[in-house]
Amino acid sequence: xxxxxxxxxxxxxxxxxxxxxxxxxxxxxxxxxxxxxxxxxxxxxxxxxxxxxxxxxxxxxxxxxxxxxxxxxxxxxxxxxxxxxxxxxxxxxxxxxxxxxxxxxxxxxxxxxxxxxxxxxxxxxxxxxxxxxxxxxxxxxxxxxxxxxxxxxxxxxxxxxxxxxxxxxxxxxxxxxxxxxxxxxxxxxxxxxxxxxxxxxxxxxxxxxxxxxxxxx
Amino acid sequence: xxxxxxxxxxxxxxxxxxxxxxxxxxxxxxxxxxxxxxxxxxxxxxxxxxxxxxxxxxxxxxxxxxxxxxxxxxxxxxxxxxxxxxxxxxxxxxxxxxxxxxxxxxxxxxxxxxxxxxxxxxxxxxxxxxxxxxxxxxxxxxxxxxxxxxxxxxxxxxxxxxxxxxxxxxxxxxxxxxxxxxxxxxxxxxxxxxxxxxxxxxxxxxxxxxxxxxxxxxxxxxxxxxxxxxxxxxxxxxxxxxxxxxxxxxxxxxxxxxxxxxxxxxxxxxxxxxxxx
Lengths: 217, 277
What we know:
The complex is a heterodimer of chains A (217) and B (277). Chain A has 217 residues and is mainly α. Helix content of chain A is 77%, strand content 0%. Chain A contains 8 helices and no strands. In chain A, helix 5 packs across helix 7 (170-179). Chain A is extended, with a radius of gyration of 26 Å. Chain B is of the alpha/beta class and 277 residues long. In chain B, 52% of the residues lie in helices and 12% in strands. Chain B contains 11 helices and 6 strands. Chain B has helices at residues 9-25, 38-48, 67-83, 97-111, 130-139, 141-144, 159-162, 181-192, 205-213, 223-234, 239-271, and strands at 55-61, 87-92, 120-125, 171-176, 196-200, 220-222. In chain B, strands 3-2-1-4-5-6 form a 6-stranded parallel beta sheet, with helices on both faces. In chain B, helix 3 (67-83) links the parallel strand 1 and strand 2. Chains A and B meet through helix 2, helix 4, helix 5, helix 6 and helix 7 of A and helix 1, helix 4, helix 5, helix 9 and helix 11 of B.
């Protein structure tokens, strides 16, 4: 069991990790073919991962309903939505799921007239919560907070025609904030994250980072 | 004066809703100045200067939650591409974005009498890690997408006879509601050598200015304001321009609320002798 749980995954990570790097630098048709083959495998693994995700989501909501956790009623809505969309997808305009997708279909109708407006409405609610947060929590408590608040106001004025009506320079100031101080900060973060990713990748390839194998490894 | 934390926020919601409803109702009567930003103008100029028949690749990496911002941007860019008689290719890494992108491509193409498979193709959603899928597209588009989003085989499509892989793409735009533009830059634009720009939600834009500064993105169309800028440049005001009065109202309200909240905070602080309330 130790071989299956530990040695084999570590060996696979090592071999395919090094192979993935090496084929980027080898200008040979064999390397190019391997690259294409690996990308196909990863797409298949991606598809299986989606199935695993669906299984986990279903399991989570079944547990919530079974144990009558707080808000378990919302899980019932999840099953309702999941069931209806799955049925519409499998029904496929009366052709069955084994045939190519039919357009327009019940699934298209549900997506366009139910899922799209519901999704857009959920996102639109953010505007109301930001307005509420503006009154209750955005405070100039320190120098840094004041700086952030000032920059936010200038960018907001620059991004709406209202700012341009008040002062034609607001869009220019807003663009400068995005291009100079924002870029400087983001670049620092990006370099840090990239170095972290590089280090983590090497740790995984050489078997030093094993958290992806689960707790027992 | 009661603490702001105890203030019933439903009054705030009601105020925002009423202000928005009034603005939207009279939005056609409100004229506001919209000067396109240089980052949007750069994208417009690039498409304007592409020779007829050039290949433009548009990734519709968004979902219905972000459609208010990204559909107007994508629609404006598609209008421009079809007006210029460019070949347009599209796909998405977001599963929820497939039907939205497919509908958008077909509806705009129909306005210009463009045919799927000849003048444009929308491949749809492709699962898998972005790096590998982009690499696959970089080698061979028909192998990455044996069928398009409408189940048509891609192998014999006239549009793909001259555009075999990402090396044949002349310009690429990622319409990003999340972190998809970065992998497109790293594994697509940098590797296969096509110029690239991004359309994105306003909240994603700060992450992308870094790449404009380095020249990896030649422009950014950010948020509904970006869509409005593009529509102004195109001379076709649509949902972006129509949304600007509402955007001005909400931004104005939020700024007023921030000022009001801070004024009360400092007033209370002064009364307590400098201690934080």
